[in-house]
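Q: How would the structure tokens look for this protein?
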Amino acid sequence: MLPRKSAYALLAVLLVIALGWVLYPTLRMFALGLNVDNLQTILGSNSNIRAIINSVTVSLYTVVGGSIVGITLAYVFFRYDFPFRGLLTSIAAVPIALPPLVGVLAFLFLYGESGILPRALQAFFSLESVPFAFDGFWAVLAVHVYTMYVYFYLFCNAALRAFDGSLLEASYDLGAGSFRSFRLVILPYLRPSIVSASLLVFMISMASFTAPLLFAGTEQFMTLQIYNYKTNGNLDLSATVSTILTVICLVFLLLIEWSNRNSGRVATKGTAVGRPVATSGVARVVAATGSLTAITLILLPILTIILISFAREGAWTTQILPGEYTTANYASLFADPNIFSPIRNSLTLAGIATAANILFGVAAAFVIGKTRAIGRTLLRILAILPFAVPGTVIAVNLIITFNQPSPLTFGTVLVGSFWMLPIAYFIRHMPLVVRSTLAALANYDDSLSDASSDLGAGFTTTLRKIVLPVVAPGIVAGSLLTFVAALGEFVSSIMLYIFDNRPISVEIWSQLRLYDFGAAAAYSVLLMLIVILSTGVIRWFGPKSQSIEQAF
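A: Here is the predicted structure in token form.
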């Protein structure tokens, strides 16, 4: 599709960017982190060993818990019909639109020691203190399952939409019951989706920072150790923990790529299953009741954030619910320039990073997918590498690499500048546009370009009038996913921001530390609305679950 010389020229530019901004900082971190003395210090510390064990264990448990919830919901909505099923199907995917900090904040307001539920139980049973403390290992696990089950749900839901209903009918005709049919027919069919979601969720859980930051208590996690070492000025040890975490995530990224390459589907005749039908009245009632209960638990944290956003400052301390409500929290978001500043900053930073991701991602996808240029495999590897690099690690990479003048920065020091955040966002979300555009290009018929060329159209005309309109939905979906992810980014932001470019997520954290819960919640609700609007646009251009699968 691309002329040979143009393809190699473009490949050279893309490799310079990927090598300079992705691989080089990672290798700099490895060089520092693999220092023998640093490794001995880290691996000889009980707290660091505990952090590694906790991170791996909570990630494994998250995979188990998330798969149970996600697969169950996907199957119930696929197999049974009951009132409001369509609405509940959409609501079940809501956590994917929650920025990490907002989801964690919702749990804090609802289940935290001073949250609504513990205080309500204390008052109802006339207890001297709250009946439970939502912190530690199990609190982190609960937040992870809530925010990550959605990957299993979306992946399996997308797979079940293409399921051949005759397989299930044949199983029933042969005398198998519902559970046996599910175990022997549905689960094997879903295996590729479950494996991909499991590896992805494990890697995301390992990289989680926000939930451990607010709920870990005395427990240690690797991302917290990275942050604490950096905050205390010990960048060497921060780099060592970052190296260990990156190696673990790299292994699982390779497993994801391997499973995607070798995954297959059960052979089907392509017949549609049609509208799901319950096998019995009891099963239908149980499915409806269980689904409604699950959806209620999903919505409670979100509704809590909305409620607290109307709380007057200082009106919610030890009470079950805020004593006074006001709309001033929302009015000040746009009326006060200082309060609006983080909103403007987030939109600007996310916009810059997304524009860079579009330029790089689309060009890289075309070189990887539609040329035979030598070096395109290296570009593909570098383009997906940021999936295996947690946000805390990306921040450490950039600090280590750009705290002194560099040819990549034209002799300037980037640390402490405005540009550190958009660069971090660009690097972290680089794979999203590349993967979604590659998926769109995989369905593109090259004969269309040949026909355009035969009719006398040049390369630019063919690209503009034939190719881009066909692959545009994939580009738009990946771009909006990038924008949404950058808009709510907290992990890299908390380590790299300066006051003049502090984003919404950092401002939410600041308001929380000042105990202005209403303002923190109002920022969170606004962030949710922007994210929901963006994901709505994604759905307009293609099924959201498919777009997410393409991106990951």
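The domain at 332-373+410-552 is CATH 1.10.3720.10 (MetI-like fold).

Residues 270-276, 543-547 have pLDDT under 50 and may be disordered.

Upvote if useful.
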